[in-house]
Structure formats: C-alpha cells, structure tokens
Specification:
Layout: H1 7-13, H2 15-18, H3 22-47, H4 55-83
Helix pairs in contact: 3-4
Length: 89
C-alpha cells in the first residue's frame, strides 16, 4: 500500500528548520539600509516605466542610486571594520 504524504505533513516535519536563526536575522538587520535604498531606487525606476523620464525623474533616480551606493559602502565599511583586529577600520 502506498502512503500519500500531504504537503502540510512534509512542511511540518521540517518546522524547526524553517525559522531563521538569530545570526540570519542579525544579517538581515545589518543589510536593511541597503535593502531600503534599493527599494527606493526601484520605485524611482518604476515611476518612469510607462513614460519618458522628466528631468525631475532623472534627478530622483540619480539621488536614489547615490543613496543605494552609499548604503552599500557603509555596509562594507562596517563589516570590514568588524573583522579587523584592534578596531582599525
């Protein structure tokens, strides 16, 4: 006789492994400024999808791109400073 396993049974069997660990949550928290800056950049691009970008749109995209880059640089500097001994950055 073949037993049919429902999808819920298969998911419940690994319920302990589904939740993110504390380290994963901390990593997401550290990357949140980058994520939010990327969302702003995407929003700026989405606004211009169905029309020709105006000068204001282009400025908004440039500012959002600079913020996204600055957030990435800040993240890299924080992680590089955390891994260097003696607190040197």
């Amino acid at each position: 006789m073949n037993h049919v396993v429902t999808l819920q049974d298969a998911i419940t069997a690994f319920a302990d492994f589904i939740e993110p660990t504390a380290a994963e949550l901390d990593a997401v928290e550290r990357e949140m400024p980058v994520i939010l800056a990327d969302v702003d950049l995407l929003d700026a691009h989405i606004v211009t999808l169905d029309r020709t970008p105006t000068e204001v749109d282009e400025r908004r995209i440039r500012r959002a791109r600079r913020r996204a880059l600055a957030a990435r640089v800040a993240l890299v500097n924080r992680t590089a400073g955390a891994s260097l001994p003696g607190g040197a950055a």
